[in-house]
Amino acid sequence: MKLSSPIYKLKRRARMLARADGIRLHEALNRIAAGEGFESWSHMAAGYADATPARRILRSISAGEMVLIAARPGHGKTLLGLELAVLAGEIGRQGYFFSLEYTKSDVQRRLAALGAANLSDTGALIVDTSDDICAEHVTKIIEQRDCAALAVIDYLQLLDQRRSHPPLEAQVRDLRAFARAKGAVVCLISQVDRSFDLTERDWPAVDDVRLPNPLDLSLFDRLCFLHDGNIRMERAG
Q: What's the confidence (pLDDT) of residue 129?
């Protein structure tokens, strides 16, 4: 099906519609998509987006889902997570990137590598690198804006590094409940244990996720593994 205008022009039309009718942006986006013959903006955008790994992941996830993105160091998991947050607007969501690993200048350099250096300045992407990041902090920041969210947290193993924060599993359960209640998508970046490097397997698996503290990984809906430039997405459990 051919669109009446390019995606970026349809998005501009949706912003104008939102202002004119006093409705939320995601509602305006869905109206525009319906006018093009699609069920929703996310379905339309996914169908006409370039098939990059991040866009393939966006195409496969649904509202309310929790996604684990796992890899050994140097295999691109943080850049993939950041790209998901950058592209969130293409499916009518507000992108958030929370990092306990990188400074804002680190994130800015990676945004530049993605060709999105100014995105955080416009508010299209919310970047948070504070030391207070935990499940409660993430949900409070997202709730400040009444919109559909796609949040990426970098990274799982650091969430409970402060003794004042709840245990890791309690935080993941809280994030899962929040995602379900608000229709948010929450992606957590995770390390893979170095013992995987000693194996001869082509891909890490759920048993290779590094867990210094107890965590039921069935709390995630989808698992995304990266290795040697390849990506594999699977359902948890």
A: 97
Instruction: Quick: pLDDT tens for 146-182.
Output: 899 999 999 999 999 999 999 999 999 999 999 999 9
Largest CA distance in the chain: 59
Please report the pLDDT score of residue 211 as a whole number.
Answer: 95
Give the DSSP letter string of 181-226: HHT-EEEEEEEB-GGGGGS--SS--GGGB--SS---GGG-SEEEEE
pLDDT attached to residue 49:
53
Distance CA 174, CA 180 (A): 10
CA distance 175 to 22: 30
User: Which residues neighbour 39 within 8 Å (Cβ) at sequence distance 6 or greater?
Assistant: 33
Is there a single domain that holds both residue 111 and residue 25? no
Query: Are 92 and 11 in a shared domain?
Result: no
Q: Answer yes or no: do 34 and 110 share one domain.
A: no
Same domain, 20 and 108: no
Sheet with 66-71, edge to edge strand ranges: 125-128, 94-99, 149-154, 185-191, 66-71, 222-227, 230-235
Number of domains in the chain: 2
